[in-house]
């Protein structure tokens, strides 16, 4: 959708038309997996592997909520 | 020390094939021969990125009028700037569009004047509407952010609902509904462009309904007209606070219109670094912070929100750039705005009667 993931500066930023969001923690882990290739279930699966021990259902919900919020602002599409 | 700007507005040329009656360019356009060279812009983009600037807006005039646009986009992308092309689309072929996206363009903001070809071309003073529609479909072939921009005023507000339906069919990610701001050419044409109160009221409803209908598909950003507001806009997010504008000749300005304020001296990027202009130049310091403020701004609890409004408007309407923006309901000079609103006709003047009276924005001279 023309958003750009900028990890090169001191603080990782998600850039989009007329705006930017600082991304931290798990948001960072989620966006790193958004490569235009992986599907949502694949992203969740990968996160569940990375955060082994955390509640898998919770991971799915959190990732879904995070991406939904970005989708509603028309920053990402999936 | 002020914190560094987040966005750089690069007016790379004032040449333009359109002659829009609401153009926000200054009435004193930069001559073609005075334009910065490619290497000047490359240096400016690098300096901006080093200062922490995130967004670059390539605008004009019509930025496509510069043959080196591709090179500018490549260098902006290399500097890691999120690059937006603000364009009328005129002169953009399918091939050049593909090339620009390939060069790293992130976002294209394409302007529309109306949904009706004749009306749109009449406002732009050029046959341009059909090409814009064609271009929109080409843009959708690429992975690039796409905003359709619509400047609204008395001559097209009655058709707003229809125009939004038309813009939706172009499938942009974002629609920007921008009320005309009265500077430059728009101020010259204010009597023809100022909306009626009834139009404004109904526009609010139309925009709200479209927002609801398009939720999750197209984001709508709407900029309200300040003459009708209770408080002024936080112009440019505060003077010398978030944004920096470089005009075609290399002068660094805190906003598009700052040139109208008498006595201002604008440093040029040919002579000084962006950082030193931002931090130390007299122009950027002039209305930075709060020490320049007069009453009622000085003690107003909104002063950190709207920064006293727009300095250029204060000068243009009240004759004093340090005065409270006259559009503010608390401004001693609010009467000027009230008078303008009272005196602007309440009926929508017919197109034919107008065309002979308004001023189309011309092209700058060569030298």
Explained architecture:
The complex is a heterodimer of chains A (78) and B (367). Chain A has helices at 25-33, 40-50, 56-72; strands at residues 4-6, 13-16, 19-22. Chain A has a three-stranded antiparallel beta sheet with strand order 1-2-3, with no helix packed on it. By secondary structure, chain A is an alpha+beta fold. The longest helix of chain A has 17 residues, at 56-72. Chain A is built from three helices and three strands. Helices cover 47% and strands 14% of the residues of chain A. In chain A, a hairpin with a 2-residue loop joins strand 2 and strand 3 (19-22). Chain B has a nine-stranded mixed beta sheet, covered by helices on one side. In chain B, helix 3 links the parallel strand 3 (82-87) and strand 4. Chain B is α/β, with parallel strands linked by helices. The two termini of chain B are 38 Å apart. The longest helix of chain B is centred in the middle third of the chain and has 18 residues, at 197-214. In chain B, helix 1 (38-50) runs parallel beside helix 2. Chain B has helices spanning 38-50, 69-78, 94-103, 117-124, 129-139, 160-169, 184-188, 190-193, 197-214, 274-280, 282-286, 303-306, 311-318, 334-343, 351-355; strands spanning 7-11, 55-59, 82-87, 107-112, 145-152, 174-179, 219-223, 243-246, 252-253. Chain B is built from 15 helices and nine strands. The model of chain B has no long low-confidence stretch (mean pLDDT 92). In chain B, 35% of the residues lie in helices and 13% in strands. Chain B is globular and about 55 Å long.
């Amino acid at each position: 959708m023309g958003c750009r993931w900028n990890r090169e500066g001191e603080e990782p930023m998600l850039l989009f038309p007329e705006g930017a969001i600082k991304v931290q923690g798990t948001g960072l882990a989620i966006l790193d997996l958004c490569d235009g290739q992986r599907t949502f279930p694949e992203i969740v699966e990968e996160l569940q592997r990375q955060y082994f021990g955390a509640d898998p259902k919770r991971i799915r919900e959190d990732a879904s909520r995070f991406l939904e919020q970005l989708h509603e602002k028309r920053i990402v599409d999936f | 020390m002020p914190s560094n700007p987040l966005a750089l507005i690069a007016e790379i040329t004032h040449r333009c094939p359109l002659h829009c009656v609401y153009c926000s360019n200054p009435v004193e356009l930069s001559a073609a021969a005075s334009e910065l060279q490619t290497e000047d812009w490359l240096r400016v983009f690098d300096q901006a990125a080093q200062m922490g600037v995130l967004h670059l807006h390539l605008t004009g005039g019509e930025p496509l009028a510069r043959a080196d646009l591709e090179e500018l986009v490549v260098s902006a992308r290399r500097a890691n700037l999120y690059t937006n092309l603000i364009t009328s689309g005129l002169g953009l072929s399918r091939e050049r569009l593909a090339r620009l996206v390939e060069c790293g363009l992130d976002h294209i903001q394409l302007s529309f004047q109306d949904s009706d070809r004749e009306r749109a071309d009449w406002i732009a003073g050029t046959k341009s509407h059909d090409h814009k529609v064609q271009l929109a479909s080409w843009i959708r072939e690429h992975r690039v952010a796409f905003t359709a921009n619509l400047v609204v005023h008395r001559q097209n507000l009655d058709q707003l609902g229809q125009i939004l339906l038309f813009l939706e069919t172009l499938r942009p990610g974002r629609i920007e509904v921008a009320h005309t701001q009265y500077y430059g050419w728009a101020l010259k044409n204010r009597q023809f462009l100022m909306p009626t109160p009834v139009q404004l009221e109904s526009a609010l409803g139309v925009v709200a309904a479209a927002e609801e209908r398009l939720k999750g598909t197209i984001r709508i950003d709407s900029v309200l007209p300040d003459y009708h507001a209770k408080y002024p806009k936080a112009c440019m997010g505060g003077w010398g606070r978030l944004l920096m504008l470089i005009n075609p000749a290399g002068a660094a300005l805190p906003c598009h219109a700052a040139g109208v304020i008498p006595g201002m001296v604008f440093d040029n990027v040919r002579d000084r670094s962006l950082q030193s202009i931002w931090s130390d130049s007299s122009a950027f310091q002039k209305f930075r912070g709060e020490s320049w403020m007069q009453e009622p701004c000085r003690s107003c609890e909104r002063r950190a929100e709207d920064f006293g409004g727009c300095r250029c408007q204060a000068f243009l309407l009240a004759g004093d750039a340090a005065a409270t923006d006259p559009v503010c309901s608390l401004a001693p000079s609010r009467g000027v705005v009230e008078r303008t609103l009272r005196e602007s006709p309440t009926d929508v003047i017919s197109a034919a009667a107008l065309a002979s009276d308004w001023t189309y924005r011309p092209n700058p001279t060569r030298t």
